[in-house]
Amino acid sequence: MIRKLPSGQFRLYSKKKDAKGKRKNLGTFSTRAAAEKHERAVQYFKRAS
User: Fold this and answer.
1) Which residues are within 8 A (CB) of 26 and not within 5 positions of it... i.e. 6 or more apart?
2) What is the spatial distance between Cα 32 and Cα 11, in angstroms, rounded to a whole number?
3) Which of 25, 27, 35, 38 could be disulfide-bonded to 10 (CB atoms 3.0-4.6 Å)?
4) How far apart are CA 37 and CA 49, in angstroms?
5) Does position 24 have pLDDT exceeding 70, yes or no?
6) Rounded Cα gap, residues 18 and 23, in angstroms
7) In the chain, what percentage of residues exceed pLDDT 90?
8) In sequence order, which residues have a C-beta less than 8 Å from that of residue 7 and are 6 or more positions away?
9) Per-residue pLDDT averaged across 8-32, rounded?
10) What integer pLDDT is reported at residue 49 of this predicted model?
């Protein structure tokens, strides 16, 4: 899940929530394209084994 921050940057969050009901921060990026690229990398490594 990618959200735009008030600073204009984009933050990648996990799709699932943790025990406290919060989403894990998976990185902050200056462009949406960079965040989408990292999201694809995360999905790849989740299923790489």
Assistant:
1) 12, 13, 14, 38, 39, 42
2) 9
3) 35
4) 20
5) yes
6) 6
7) 92
8) none
9) 96
10) 66
Distance CA 34, CA 11 (A): 10
pLDDT of residue 48: 82
Output phi, psi for 20, to 5 deg.
-85, -5
Indicate the DSSP class of residue 30: S
Show the tokens assigned to 3. 């959200």
Amino acid at 46: K
**16-33 mean pLDDT:** 96
pLDDT at 35 over 80: yes
For the chain, how many structural domains are there in total? 1
Domain with 9 in it: 2-46
